[in-house]
Amino acid sequence: MENNTSGQGKESEIPIEIKGWNWGAFIFSWIWGIGNNTYRAFWVFFPLVNIIMMIALGLKGNEWAWRHKKWESVEHFKQVQRKWTKAALIFLVVVLFLTLVMIFSVGAIFKDSEPYKISMSRIANSPEVINRIGSPYETGFVTGGIQTSGPDSSANLAYSIEGPNDEATVALRATMEMSEWSIECLIVNYKDSNDKTILVPCN
């Protein structure tokens, strides 16, 4: 008959079968702690200690849960922890998906912005840039930010551009006054070299 010592605190003998990493404890920390009578998980609310405690929960969560709560059997314990693991993995997938959606949405907004469109027009009208990278060319993901303060705005953006001959990174700074954008800095830095084309000198 199985020797079930769960829920006996320090007196509990930890079955070898339950040892190992616990994704539910690592991801859900204090929520998992409440469900498994492991209240030390609330240390995640304290700065500096929180990261250490999350890792500790992943490493020692199974043992702590076995010591602090009475379980029907080892198999029952494993079944419950598998549910926590499944929930944690689903949560991670959802978070990753939403993060990617947000990133690409922001990138799409940047590509639809006036500073980006103006910079692309300047590049298209620059023989030096077109001769260097070749045509046709494509641009990559746009990073940076656009800040608005009252009627005025500013933008600091960067993106890659690639043609059949070469690749480059475009960096631009722009401001908007009286509803009109103006480029204050626009530089094309070519890949694997110190060469650059300054379309608008930085002030």
Would you give an account of this structure?
- The protein has five helices and five strands; from the N terminus they run αααααβββββ.
- The radius of gyration is 28 Å and the shape is elongated.
- The longest helix has 38 residues.
- 22% of the residues are buried.
- The chain has a five-stranded antiparallel sheet.
- Helix 1 crosses helix 2.
- Helix content is 44%, strand content 25%.
- The chain has 203 residues and is an alpha+beta fold.
- Strand 3 and strand 4 form a beta hairpin.
- The mean pLDDT is 93.
- It starts with 22 loop residues before the first helix and ends with a strand.
**Strand content bin:** 15-25%
Number of separate helices: 5
* Shape descriptor: elongated
Strand order of the largest sheet: 1-2-3-4-5
Biggest sheet architecture: 5 strands, antiparallel
Average pLDDT number: 93
- Indicate the structural class: alpha+beta
End-to-end CA span: 81 Å
Give the number of DSSP strands: 5
Helix content: 40-55%
Order of helices and strands, N to C?
Answer: HHHHHEEEEE
**Rg, nearest Å:** 28 Å
Q: Would you identify the regions where 5 or more consecutive residues have pLDDT less than 50?
A: none
Short descriptors:
203 residues, alpha+beta, five-stranded antiparallel β-sheet, 5 helices, 5 strands, elongated
SSE arrangement:
Layout: H1 23-35, H2 49-68, H3 74-111, H4 114-124, H5 127-133, E1 138-149, E2 152-162, E3 167-177, E4 180-190, E5 196-200
Antiparallel strand pairs: 1-2, 2-3, 3-4, 4-5
Helix pairs in contact: 1-2, 1-3
